[in-house]
Amino acid sequence: MKTQTKNIIILGGGYSGVMAALRLAGRTKRLDTRITLVNALNYFVERPRLHEQATGTAPQQRPLAYMLRGTKVHFLQGWAAAVNPAQRCVQVQTTSGEQQLAYDYLVIALGSRVDRHTIPGVQDYAFTLDPYGNLTSEALKSKLTLYGQNPFRVVVVGGGATGVEAATQVKGKYPHSQVSLVTQGEVGAFKRGQVQQHIREALREQAIAIFENARVNRVEREGVVLDSGQVPADIIIWAAGFVASPLAREADLQVNAQNQVLIDPYLRSLSHPNVYAVGDAARPVEEPGVPTRMSVFTALVSGAQAAENIAAQLKSQALQPLSFVWYGQGIALGPRDAVGFATYPADVAWPLIFRGKLALKIRDFFVWYLGIVLELERQIPGFFYWNGKGRYTQQKRQQQRKTEVTYLA
Asked: Which CATH number covers residue 86?
């Protein structure tokens, strides 16, 4: 008796979505499945290089169809317009019209985008390092090219890694520009210690003006308006705050304030277990052995684990919880500088840090590797491996023992 084909739809062709598709293709070779990857663009976006793309130095883009070649994954270029969990279908808008795709399992891997709606004027006047929509990285590239060697003023809003990388990249490629960095907290506060100190030193050495503990009231064509007054600008780059696609919220899935799907330890939606969420689009309600944050590494790990669990369900096998450890992080500080450091295992920076051109080379290597690992996963299914797979279970056992001791006391 012939079994019914299981339809698996993956929304999003970033690191998490492509990893999920490739791992699923490898794990379901002998099963009757149809895997469809839906993405608005027909090429893969390397998010760690978007600040380079904005200044014209990013590598050539890879077509998604090429990255999926030789697998059972079907690529469909289109916008995911709506999800209907009750009917288990997705509405996709393509250049040839609207399509309705039925699914048995859905993977939401739509990543994150800069929050354009909280502060007035951002949507109208600020560029972002996003690949979609208006005033994004390609538009910023055109604007910077227009100024060329003429003096101009740039204000970057956001003191996290994205804002720091944007400010230093623009200054490095356009040394005659006047660059300012505005943040509502402290610059580099996401890591503190020596890392934060080096970021501050790099900004000062590059003559980038810093406005800390500054609240932005609105963005105007001529600049950014703070409580203390206006910071004038010819170009404004917004890198403050990231949110996920509103698609899951509109579909009545349980989400948090950033539109991230709330997931159980197995990466399933709390409200709809046949819907998985990965990467920046997801938020675990239980810590997977370590603190989580938006990153390429968590995108790859969660994409691979979701694929493993969907394949396990199809084979009536036990699911495994998301669990991993951190390795390290690198932050570019312009074309000739960076800071790199180990964070093993719980995302806390080690005292030893790498700086300058050595750190830049190390960062470039790992950014390259995180992209090439998808090609290796295509060639060798199951290639991508990560440590710490038992960390979640170990942590749960420790918590249980503490609870039992407290109860007995």
From this structure: 3.50.50.100
